[in-house]
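yo, NAD(P)-dependent dehydrogenase, short-chain alcohol dehydrogenase family is done. seq:
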Amino acid sequence: MNGIQDGVAVVTGGGSGIGRQSSLRFAEAGANVVVADVDEEGGHRTVDLIESNGGEATFVETDVTDSEEVAAMVQTAIDEYGGIDFAHNNAGIAEEGARLADYDEAEWDQMIDVNLKGVWRCLKAEIPEMIERGGGAIVNTSSVAGVSANGSAHYAASKHGVIGLTRRATVDYADDGIRFNAVCPGVIDTPMVQQAGEDNTEELERITAGIPAGRLGEPEEIADAVVWLCSEDASYVMGQPIIIDGGLLVQ
Ligand code: NAP
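structure:
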């Protein structure tokens, strides 16, 4: 992919699932990768996988609900590799939800704090450094729940919000040479979904049967889109929520 080689990519939630695969794909395309996650073991594992493929990566323990840790994550990219060119703001949580009037406020706040405000904190730290460097490209992870009523109310609200941030950032920073897009995965075979599937096998089978592709997505199928969106091959793609869902939402 054009324009990724020798760049610097930061990936949140890089210790598992989709973020691990986008970290690996960035490294395969020749980028230096900062893998950020609350999961130290998972993050180090991603770095080991990249290094064993001959790539270059650094882990930084980062909770996206903590502004100082997010600032330190971006600083790591600067200290280790000289700056930041690409970001995949991907860390997130999902929970089965009640109907929206039945949430307690703490549950609601936690979901928004990680999935929506976490993305905003990352953007706030990344954008000034990209402006300094003359531009960059950022992909935020939303969901099919960001463009439809799939998913619980607090999750759907957080993921709709990620698309709003992506669109607004596009308008605010186009002149600075930064492109922003979002990926909207369907049901992807990651620990997040595997855990939910273990808790409710029948529900996962019902969901899978309703996907036109007839199977769950693989994290690599999201990661390929993330790296493409950051590459020069996607130079005119701006502010878009890219749905990658095996046909789930076209029905
Ligand atoms: P995953 O395998 O659970 O990976 C998410 C990673 O993010 C985990 O390592 C997790 O650590 C970490 N994380 C959680 N809270 C964090 C925080 N506050 N700060 C930093 N890292 C944090 O899930 P995934 O399926 O790859 O999901 C990645 C993203 O895709 C999420 O935003 C999710 O909402 C979105 N998504 C997933 C699907 C799907 O079907 N899998 C569909 C649509 C959208 P712990 O494991 O320690 O919590």
